[in-house]
Specification:
The chain is an alpha/beta fold. Helices cover 41% and strands 22% of the residues. The model has no long low-confidence stretch (mean pLDDT 85).
């Protein structure tokens, strides 16, 4: 629950209309509705009943709004007293699938652009959560991938969330393995070469469908499969179990030692990594700066592989 959500709920109750409130607050109606839904889900009650003529406040909602108004009023008092003349705090949030170049770019952004007062957030996690973060304006932008297989479903999900996809990198699939892996000496591997080895993938929770997988060729059947939730675990498992994961040709910074190597995978597929943004949200200078850093890192990696 956030103060902004409480402000939205109070404003909707005051106007009696989500559409009118969205105009007053200069926010997309879909984004406002999503914020209210998220709030209702979090607190476990229905605040508003929606109908063709507007909204009706439920009995539970009326009680909740009484508390919410008190919080909002107190926040206004604090803002008037302490924030009006203070330097505004910089705020920026990114959501991403598990790519190290996105976190490296974030570190560079903080180093170059963070002022004396800031709140930066880097969310690394599941595909669906990344999309929802940007759709519900919890993050300024997100980074995900698309392929020939998942493109239709991902595009539909992005369209429903009022999001757009901008391609950042088109890469051929590679596998990452430990230096002592049986495949380590190969210049290229085929799918049948992978059969004896554990396949390492990122677990996707309730949205654990093939289409939301972070790895290409997600429909393949694996005799040995290990799912993880973070990058450090997947690296340890590459080394400790002779497992492999499929990713782009981008060399994550934490894999640039002698322990992990990358090998091209002999398949006719392309991984398209891109940036997702909300159609109704104008990009801040921090978002634009972050995108430029991403583009530079991608170009630098392309040059190193030529």
């Amino acid at each position: 629950m956030t103060l902004q959500q409480l402000k939205y709920a109070v404003a909707v109750a005051n106007t009696g209309s989500i559409s009118e409130t969205s105009k007053t607050l200069f926010i997309a109606q879909s984004s406002l509705s999503a914020a209210i839904r998220d709030l209702e889900e979090e607190i476990g009650i229905t605040i508003f009943h929606r109908n063709n003529r507007g909204i009706l406040i439920t009995p539970e909602g009326r009680e909740f709004l009484g508390y919410a108004r008190q919080v909002v009023q107190q926040a206004h008092l604090i803002e008037d007293k302490y924030i009006e003349h203070a330097q505004p705090k910089q705020r920026f949030a990114v959501s991403s699938q598990h790519y190290s170049f996105t976190s490296s770019a974030f570190v560079e952004l903080v180093h170059d652009y963070a002022g004396q007062s800031y709140e930066f957030i880097f969310r690394e996690g599941r595909t669906y959560d990344t999309i929802m973060d940007v759709s519900h304006l919890r993050s300024d932008l997100g980074v995900i991938y698309m392929s020939r297989f998942n493109e239709a479903v991902i595009k539909k999900t992005l369209e429903e969330g009022n999001l757009v996809f901008r391609e950042l990198l088109a890469a051929k699939p590679h596998i990452f393995v430990g230096k002592n892996n049986p495949l380590a000496g190969k210049k290229k591997v085929r799918l049948k070469d992978l059969d004896p080895l554990p396949c390492l993938t990122y677990e996707q929770g309730e949205q654990n469908s093939f289409y939301f997988s972070e790895e290409i060729l997600s429909t393949l059947n694996h005799e040995k499969s290990i799912k993880v939730t973070d990058k450090s675990a997947i690296v340890n498992l590459m080394i400790g179990t002779n497992g492999y994961t499929i990713s782009s040709g981008m060399y994550p910074s934490y894999l640039r030692g002698e322990e992990i190597i990358t090998i091209p995978l002999d398949v006719k597929e392309t991984i398209r990594i891109g940036i997702i943004t909300h159609k109704d949200q104008k990009q801040s200078y921090l978002a634009e700066a972050y995108i430029k850093i991403l583009e530079r890192l991608v170009e630098k990696e392309k040059e190193s592989q030529e």
